[in-house]
Amino acid sequence: MKYSEKVSNKLNNLLEKAYDAEKGYRLAQDNVTNPALKDFFGDRVRQRYNFGHELKTEIGSFGQLAERDGSIKGDLHRTWMNLTATLSTNEEEQMLEEVVRGEKATMEAYEEILREDALLLPKSTERLLIKQRDAIQAGLEKAKRFESLVS
């Protein structure tokens, strides 16, 4: 079985988001001093690295080529994170706000493919996307809890 071009493009979009998130979390980890936040961001770096490998493997197993890097949009978001961190009096709060914003966009992308393309997805892909979406949701909830503590 092969993915349709539409599904392949959406999965590669999720893969780009995983690359972008990994880089963004690394940037956030480098810009905070709170040890708990550093650990949280470090866990997310490792998680997104693993997500990328899982997605690449899944995409390849169905005869498609996987993207190799993040997106220009992700580069711009990280530049914005750097700028706002530099100008902010509370870097930790600013980093968390940007993380929450990025995670919400990622959740929307997962929800879209699971909602609109569910019938086109092999069961292994659907299970992988649900597992990753649920992990992102849990991380988003944890980021929101941290946000209330540092503001």
Describe the structure.
The chain is an all-alpha fold and 151 residues long. It has helices spanning 5-30, 35-61, 72-87, 91-116, 123-150. The radius of gyration is 16 Å and the shape is elongated. The chain starts with a helix and ends with a helix.
Q: Topology, pairings included?
A:
Layout: H1 5-30, H2 35-61, H3 72-87, H4 91-116, H5 123-150
Helix pairs in contact: 1-2, 1-3, 1-4, 2-5, 3-4, 4-5
Task: Name the descriptors.
mainly alpha; 5 helices
Radius of gyration: 16 Å
Count of helices? 5
Helix vs. strand class: mainly alpha
Strand and helix order: HHHHH
Distance between the termini: 50 Å
Low-confidence regions? none
Shape: elongated
Proportion of residues in β-strands: under 5%
- The counted number of beta strands is 0
Largest sheet: none
Determine the fraction of residues in helical runs and give it as a percent range: over 70%
Instruction: Provide mean pLDDT, rounded.
Output: 84
Short description:
By secondary structure, the protein is mainly alpha-helical. It has helices at residues 5-30, 35-61, 72-87, 91-116, 123-150. The chain is 81% helix and 0% strand.
